[in-house]
Design a protein that fits this description.
Blueprint (H helix, E strand, L loop, with lengths): L1 H56 L2 H12 L5 E5 L5 E4 L11 E8 L3 E8 L1 H53 L12 H50 L6 H31 L9 E4 H15 L7 E5 L4 E4 L1 H17 L7 E8 L2 E8 L20 H6 L6 H11 L3 E6 L5 E8 L8 H9 L1
Parallel strand pairs: 6-8
Antiparallel strand pairs: 1-2, 1-4, 3-4, 5-7, 8-9, 9-11, 10-11
Helix pairs in contact: 1-2, 1-3, 4-5, 5-9, 6-7, 7-9
Length: about 450
């Protein structure tokens, strides 16, 4: 709107300057033409008067004096000269015969005299100056009025677009698709809103189809994976198995568990994508407790890393969110630090809050993340060259972390740590009592 208003103001100023300049120019040309007509008429009248007086007096000097006395107009100087240029008679009023501020016209008249008429250009210049001043005085309030009117018209014309922008942001935040247009919108705005409505509806349909396909495929895979895992467990319990067969079954069981973890991660990723639509399940969550629980669970899986992990968490760091999603996101964050560090390398976890923003910082003393990979690691299934070479996984832990963070109105970024490795910082909006509704808390507890 600011740009449109500025363009309207520039256009209004250009129009005002054009009108004012045209008015002054036309007025100058008109006054100049009037001066020319006045000079021509005065010469014609003086020639006629001199001829009549000569016929009566038969003396050029007396005829010149009589003609000037009877016919010389006010506001102009009339001089009658003989053939040698000597003055025979002069009106003695008006401007002098020479000067840059006068206009002069002359003609030769019978019986052998020059008639010279001189007028001042000062009245014309004064009139133009007065007109310019009047236009300037009138243009200032006109420009202000045009500016205010342009701003008002721009706001009025763009109000539907501003409303559509706000509505689109709400759709982006909540995931609930609603029409952007309203009855009464201008035809152009209504056509634009209808196009966007169709586009958003199509995108929402595609997203839902993809989500449903992933969920259905994951659910369908659960049953055969469960059966396969049970059969492998049963086969491994057979005491008659040889060592080679037992190792093969063990490898197969590991792959089945990996596939099961992949299915669970895909389901969880879709749940994180749809969590904005389920924001009614949000409840007050203590991030400090979630972080301590995540550390405890992970150290049970990696007991040898207990001395490497240091946690500094306040007693209570509350956010409004989905407890299950946040707990899984924190486990992924801390597990990633343990995964990419070796025994003896420090993993430091800090949980704090300030200015209604809650932060969880996980730093490690590993090799870190190269700057060119810092955004790519948050893409599903992306794995850095180092991870592909030496670490197992699917590349879903950090994407889940970022999607959960954004679903809660937060963000996660990675940088370099003072410990020598990576520094992941998860920020979430702090909890406010107005965020919590009893029914939301019960829904979260059921989840």
């Amino acid at each position: 709107m600011q740009r449109l208003t500025e363009l309207q103001q520039m256009l209004a100023a250009l129009l005002i300057l054009t009108v004012a300049g045209s008015t002054v120019w036309i007025s100058a040309r008109t006054l100049h033409r009037h001066e020319t007509v006045f000079l021509d008429n005065t010469l014609h009248r003086m020639v006629k008067s001199l001829g009549q007086e000569w016929a009566e007096e038969l003396n050029l000097k007396r005829a010149a004096e009589a003609a000037i006395l009877e016919s010389a107009p006010l506001g102009a100087r009339v001089d009658i000269l003989d053939r040698q240029g000597r003055t025979l008679a002069s009106s003695g009023s008006g401007p002098g015969p020479r000067g840059s501020d006068v206009r002069e016209a002359r003609t030769y008249a019978w019986p052998g005299a020059w008639i010279v008429v001189t007028i001042s250009t000062e009245p014309r210049r004064s009139a133009l100056e007065a007109l310019s001043l009047a236009l300037l005085v009138a243009a200032l309030p006109l420009a202000v009025a045009a500016s205010l009117a342009g701003r008002w018209l721009a706001r009025r014309a763009l109000r539907p677009l501003s409303r559509m922008t706000t509505e689109a942001e709400r759709i982006s935040a909540s995931g609930a698709v609603r029409p952007l247009g309203k009855p009464g919108d201008p035809l152009e705005i209504a056509a634009l809103a209808a196009s966007f409505d169709r586009l958003v509806a199509r995108l929402d349909e595609m997203a839902r189809s993809e989500r449903h396909f992933t969920e259905d495929a994951a659910h369908e895979l659960r049953t055969p994976l469960t059966v396969l895992s049970g059969e492998l467990q049963h086969a491994r319990s057979d005491p008659a198995l040889g060592t080679r067969q037992r190792e093969s079954l063990e490898h197969a069981a590991i792959q089945v568990r990996a596939m099961d973890e992949l299915v669970e991660a895909l389901l969880f990723l879709r749940h994180a994508d749809g969590s904005r639509e389920g924001s009614s399940e949000f409840a007050p969550v203590n991030l400090a407790d979630l972080a301590r629980d995540a550390v405890r669970v992970l150290l049970l899986q990696h007991p040898k890393r207990a001395a490497d992990v240091a946690i500094d968490a306040a007693d209570e760091v509350l956010v409004s969110g989905h407890p299950v999603l946040l707990a899984s996101a924190l486990r992924n964050l801390i597990a990633n630090a343990l995964k990419f560090t070796e025994p003896g390398q420090t993993v430091r976890i800090t949980v704090a809050t300030s200015q209604n923003v809650s932060r969880i910082v996980v730093e490690d003393g590993g090799t870190g993340v190269a700057p060119e990979h810092r955004e790519s690691i948050f893409q599903p299934f992306y794995r850095s060259p180092e991870a592909r070479a030496s670490k197992e996984g699917f590349g879903l832990g950090l994407p889940i972390l970022r999607r959960v963070a954004r679903a809660h109105g937060g963000e996660v970024v990675v940088s370099s740590s003072m410990l020598g490795g990576a520094r992941f910082e998860l920020t979430l909006p702090g909890w406010a009592p107005s965020d919590f509704r009893p029914d939301a808390g019960r829904a979260a507890a059921r989840a």
